[in-house]
Design a protein that fits this description.
Length: 146
């Protein structure tokens, strides 16, 4: 485990529990605002429910299968992921069976996926952050100075 960075008493040191997309996004914003942030993650890596399972010659996205972006701020974030090569629109053949007839979907909704796996955006965000994996936060305690 990397040692925690020293911190001046006038600047709060922020701990975030969980390196899913919410924790990683929060940490990215706080760090960009000049705060010192540490993430604690109970599993072996970031991504949370945007998870991927791998076998010898296969992999599958085990949690979220795709995501959509409507909010301008999230659209801009997805563009950042796309520019970094860790997300792209999902080119899928979507439709439904009506009886035995295949009816292709006409939806214009753009679905995105992480590439090469759903975990990719999370790992990319985690690169610039201090994430302590295999560490379960069990209790929170108030101390004299925090
Ligand atoms: C099967 C499935 C299918 C889904 N399909 C879709 C979909 O198609 N489209 C879509 O948009 N969304 C989908 N979702 C939902 C999407 O995956 C979640 O909304 C999103 O990933 C949640 O992100 P989060 O950061 O809020 O939480 P999480 O990803 O759950 O992250 C929380 C993190 O906190 C960690 N943690 C929890 N407690 C502690 C502790 N005490 N100490 C340390 N670490 C802790 C966890 O290990 C985890 O990594 C799906 C989810 C599942 C499970």
């Amino acid at each position: 485990m990397t040692p925690l960075p020293p911190h001046p008493h006038n600047s709060p040191r922020i701990a975030l529990v969980g390196a899913g997309l919410a924790g990683l996004s929060c940490a990215t914003a706080l760090q960009a605002a000049g705060h010192s942030v540490v993430l604690f993650e109970k599993s072996r890596g970031p991504a949370g429910r945007m998870s991927t399972r791998r076998g010898e010659d296969w992999q599958c996205d085990f949690g979220a299968q795709y995501f959509v972006a409507r909010d301008p701020a999230f659209l801009a974030e997805v563009q950042r992921w796309s520019d970094a090569g860790v997300a792209q629109p999902w080119k899928l053949r979507l439709g439904s069976f009506e009886g035995s007839r295949w009816k292709p979907s006409t939806t214009a909704l753009v679905r995105h996926v992480g590439v090469p796996a759903m975990t990719a955006p999370a790992y990319w965000l985690a690169q610039g952050l201090q994430v302590h994996a295999h560490l379960t936060v069990q209790t929170l305690e108030r101390t004299v100075d925090g």
